[in-house]
Amino acid sequence: MILTLHILALALYGLATALTLAPFVGLPVAPRVLTIGLPCAGAAIHVVAVSRLTLVGLAPALSMLALCLVLLQLASERLLRGSAVAFFTSPLATGLVGLALLIGLAPGAEPSAGRNAWFILHVALSVLGLALLALAFIAAALYLLQFRELKARRFGQVFQLFPPLERLDRLNRFALVAGFPTLTLGVLLALGYAVRFAGGLHVGKAQIVWGLFTWVVLGWAVWVRLVRHWAGRRAAFASIAGFSAVLLVYLALKLAEPGAERFL
Amino acid sequence: MGIKVLGVNHRTAPLEVRERFAHGAHEVPAALARVMAAGASGGVLLSTCNRTEFYLVLEDEGPADAVWSLLDERLPERGRASKYGYIVRDRDAVRHLYRVSAGLDSMILGESQIQGQVRDAWEASRAHAGPVLHRLFQTALHVGARVRTETAVGAGTASAASAAVAVAGKIFGELAGRSALVLGAGDMAELAATCLVDEGVQVSLVANRTHERARVIAERLGARALTLEEAWPHFGTIDIALCSTAAPHAIVTWERVAPVIAGRSGRPLCILDLAVPRDVDPAVAQLENVFLYDVDDLQTVAAQATARRRDEVPAAERIVEEETDLFWAWYGGLGVVPVIKEFRGRLEQLRAAELERAMRQLGHLAPEDRARVEQFSHALLNKFLHQPTVALKEAAEQGRGYGLLEAIRRLFGLGPSE
Question: Which of A234, B5, B44, B300 is deepest in the core (most CB within 10 A)?
Answer without folding.
Answer: B44
